[in-house]
Amino acid sequence: MTRRPPFLALWFWLFVAYLFAPLVVMAAMGFRDSNFVAFPIEKWTTRWYADVLTDREYRGSLWISVQVAVYSTLLAMAVGVPMAFPVARLRGTLRAVAVAVIVLPAFLPVVVSSIALRMFLGRIGLEPGVAAIAFGHAVGSVPFVVVMMLTRLNAMSPSLTEAARNLGADDLVVLARVVLPFMAPALFGAFLFCILLSFEDFMRSFFLGGFDPTFPVLLFAKLRFGFNPGLAAISSLVLVATLFVAFYAERFMRRRGVER
Amino acid sequence: MASILVRAREFQPYRAVVDGLSARPGLRLALVAAVPLLWILVANVAPLVQMVGISLQDRYPLPPGSEPSWTLRHYAAFFERPLYLNAFLRSFVFATLMTALTLAVMFPVAYYLSKVAPPNWRIRLLLLVVAPFWVSEIVRSFAWILMLANNGAINSFLEAAGVLERPVELLYNGISLTVGVLYLASLYMLLPLYAAIEKIDSRLLEAAADLGAGPARRFWRIVLPLSRDGIVAGCTLVFLLVVGLYAMPQLLGGPGDTMFAATIGQVFGRAGDSWPLGSAFSIILIAAALAYVGLFLALFWRGSRERSAS
Amino acid sequence: MTHPVTRRRIIRGIGAVGLGALATPALIGRARAQGGQLNVWSYAGFITDEFRREFEEKTGISVNVRLVSDQGEQYNLMVAEGGNHSADIVCVAGHRFYQFVDAGLLEPIDLDRLENWSRVEQEYADAEWVTRRGRIWGVPLVVVSTGLIYNTEEMEAPQSLAVMFDPENAGRTTYQIQDFFPLAMNFLGYDGSARSYAHDPAVAQRAVNATRDFLIEHKDKVRRYYDAATEVQQMLVNGDVRVAAGSSGPAAQLILDGFPAGYVIPREGGLAYAYGFNIAANAANLDNAYTFLNALLASPENGAAIVRSTGYNSALKGVEELLTDAERSVLALSPEERARLSWVEVETAAFIFDLIDTAAEEIRAA
Question: Which of A20, B136, C298, C339 is the least crowded, having the fewest Cβ atoms under 10 Å away?
Fold first, then answer.
């Protein structure tokens, strides 16, 4: 048994504190009885939280964002995961070129890529809206999926798949029973990237969207005339809700894993 | 899942396809590569070609009824004035430093998550650490402004505690910029590191410990080499992210911290017709960033090959 | 895990409510097709729910509103749409009209179809910037002025822009470079409107360069350069700056919220411009656009609501009477201050803005 240095645990929890401190402040600002967020909070109110909870616009935009996140994640995974396998087999210059071309969309300043995508979609006749945004987000996410896959594919020994083949497994079986389980942490990471990148994207959503805004697009428009506590409140609610869903999903998956 | 696969294997057409494919590796490769290649053409290359086209035009959009004329002057503009070059170099230096800092901060976090934390807590802790990223970048920037401002959380607290008499300037300088960018970049380092470190066999570390290797030696000889795929991926992603960051450096940086991505953003927000200039600058940024990352990767792989050879 | 059943039930319940809540709005605000539709890009707060509902009931036209937050954003999107505009009505600031007009993105306003044009205050209807190439290109709704916003607890009302370069305020000022630049030109004795440089680009370039160098020299007075009005408000309430060059709207919002802020037009003058609605070139629902603009102009209530949500003065007749005394007093400017304001010079704007944009980049990069 290796010794577990307490330093690591301390470092981790310090990092968590760093992540959450500003968010706690933001959540508190949602209770400020004023049109602006700032210290000190002299008068408290639950009005902002109540307002945003019943706001039709926010709910509508969140629903659009959820749809876009789901579609774009499915698309980006479907394209990015198969893309990584041939790349992992390449060596030398060819590999460098392949990786460079694949990560291009992540380098392109997002204003530029959004405009370019909008013009392209106009040319092929895809209407702005959920499908167009999802496509745009997938374009931005695929590089992340491929790079995540490469963190483990390099280390996957070919003898593993060969052994399975020698035992009579065909491609699909090898994929489902050997490759994907080994890739699980990378797949999970790629999945998180896709969802998060999509959920907080503004620029692509703005250029590819129609008259139903995603959540960040609505947030930007509201921000134009002052950062009011309502914006802090709705952001805090989204944070709590996603934490809730994530932990619930994790518990559900773990339960199922145990039963099996 | 397993039973579906077993049944599928008895299904004749499925068998025919699978056997046919394994008999023709060329066809199999073509099928596997077709979708990715098509995607790359449509999603990655086509927009780039379009932007190159615009960057070479004298004006865009064309006023109604005029003909396009071609020029290289927008590329020349970059080299003519030192200010663009300054912002450009600042971006690269800053992104490099931030990449190194993010790696240093996140490696212990990733290691704790993937090796030290109790196994059935790992995913939960990972989800916890990822959660702040559900909040929009701009809202998180404003949250940091509330932390660091003259009347912000930190200054208010320190003044109330009697540590400070007047607020210290934490905002709109290198401190706030670093703190904010690290906040954004941490995720991009964490996930690749997590995926890479997780696969290191813990028994290897135990064996090394049994043989008398101290923590430092175990780290340098086992953990670091075996997690290099994650380090490479994480550094690449963080560099990509930081070099292209626009909103957060604008909001948290000081008057002297203009980055090249922000310059490009400004060009696109201009009142004049500036798409050709913005496109030309973008192309320069992409080319330079790819070359830079390529160089880093080449050096890294050569270094690690030499080390494993010795 | 003492009460697994209750907890699960609660979670399920919340889940069901959440999904139900999310599902309803998807049914509202659906697609946009021909006939009975109108597609509007608007700043938040420019079209109130009440006005929209009433308009839809009365006319049977359903209004799709898309919120925008920036001029450059709209310009880039319209260009990217390549002539096939998704909007019938867009929301362009007066001083950027020329850019949109020259790129062929707007439709001139036909006054014969806009019976309620007379509801626009004379001063604004006649303003030079509304017209380009002899045609009218937009309907002004709110009017913005630029001046100095300051913290009344920390300083006296400043009379001159000199306060922005006072060593006493080192690190305690902020401005948006492009907006501030013409004022700084006036401060240094040049012509910020560039009217007198129209035929002499070399002189204009010299004036811009001198102003740029002056601003770079005084960079230590600046805490940071801001972009959006929200940022300047946050810097004031957070105590990061004590004086800022900014526009009337953000200042009025702060004052109405009880923050100790003041707003003055300094001796060297200030700029005025307007926000309003414009009709997009080849608008698919042209008739509906005119119906909408007529209704909007006829409704001082909606005008007053815009004033409240943006803090800008209204350009429409009959709105002022609907405001409260507090709102009126915050929005009012003294006659001297009014006299110091000048409209952005549209004829020279394209030429001088180009020089200023470049100078702004140099100031940032310095």
Answer: C339
Please answer yes or no on whether B8 and A86 come within 8 Å at the CB atom. no
Helix and strand counts by DSSP (H, E) for chain C:
14, 14
What percent of chain B stands above pLDDT 90?
A: 24
Stretch B35-58: mean pLDDT: 87
Of the candidates C73, C240, C362, the beta carbon closest to that of B171 is on C240
Give the gyration radius of chain A's Cα atoms.
22
Q: What is the DSSP letter of B63?
A: P
- On the question of a cis peptide bond just before residue A216, with omega within 30 degrees of 0, the verdict is no
* Structure-token pair, residue A56: 């039709």
CA B55 – CA A107 distance, rounded (Å): 17
Q: Are strands C139-151 and C261-264 parallel, antiparallel or unpaired?
A: antiparallel
CA distance A154 to chain B (A): 8
Contact A25, B147 (CB under 8 A): yes
End-to-end CA distance of chain C: 61
Q: Which residues contact B55 (CB under 8 A, 6 or more apart)?
A: B74, B75, B276, B279, B280, B282, B283
Tell me the pLDDT of chain A averaged across its residues. 85
Residues in chain C: 366
Angle at C181 between CA C204 and CA C263, to 5 degrees: 145
Running along chain C, 366 residues long, what does each successive block of 10 average in pLDDT?
39 40 37 66 88 90 89 88 89 84 90 90 81 86 91 91 92 91 91 83 90 92 89 90 92 90 91 90 92 91 87 88 85 83 77 85 82
Using alpha carbons, select from B279, C98, B272, B285 the residue that is nearest to residue A115.
Answer: B279
β partners of residue C67: C42
Measured distance CA(C243)–CA(C154) in Å, rounded: 9
Q: What is the spatial distance between Cα B183 and Cα B193, in angstroms, rounded to a whole number?
A: 16
ipTM: 0.86
- C226's enclosing H/E stretch is none
pLDDT band at B308 (very low <50, low <70, confident <90, very high): low
Residues of chain A in Cβ contact (below 8 Å) with chain C: 34-39, 56-57, 59-60, 62-64, 66, 111, 115, 118-119, 122, 128, 206-207, 210-213, 217-218, 220-227, 241, 248
Inter-chain touch C250–A226, beta carbons under 8 Å? yes
Please work out, in degrees rounded to the nearest 5, the angle formed at the alpha carbon of residue B223 by the alpha carbons of B186 and A9.
55
pLDDT score, position B305 = 64
Q: Which of A65, A57, A232, A224 is nearest to C44 (CA)?
A: A224
B273 has a pLDDT exceeding 70: no
Q: What is the pLDDT of residue B265?
A: 84
Contact yes or no for C219 and B255 at CB 8 A:
yes
| CA–CA separation, B207 and A217 (whole Å) | 53
Helices (H), chain A: 6-29, 47-53, 56-89, 92-107, 110-124, 130-153, 158-166, 171-174, 180-200, 203-208, 215-223, 229-259
**pLDDT tens-digit readout, C32-75:** 434 489 999 998 888 988 899 999 988 999 999 998 888 888 99
What is the residue whose two structure tokens read 């003065």?
A: C313
Q: Note the pTM of the prediction, 2 decimals.
A: 0.86
Report pLDDT digits (tens) over A185-223: 889 889 998 999 999 899 899 999 989 899 999 998 888
Distance CA B278, CA B55 (A): 8
**In the complex, which subunits touch A with 3 or more CB pairs below 8 angstroms?**
B, C
CB contact (8 A) between residue B199 and residue A85: no
Q: Does C103 sit within 8 Å of B271, measured CB to CB? A: no
H or E, element range at C221: none
More confident residue, A172 or C133: C133
**In whole angstroms, what separates CA C250 from the centre of its chain?**
10
Q: CB neighbours of C318 closer than 8 A, spacing ≥ 6?
A: C119, C300, C303
Residues of C in contact with A246 (CB under 8 A): none
Amino acid at B298: A
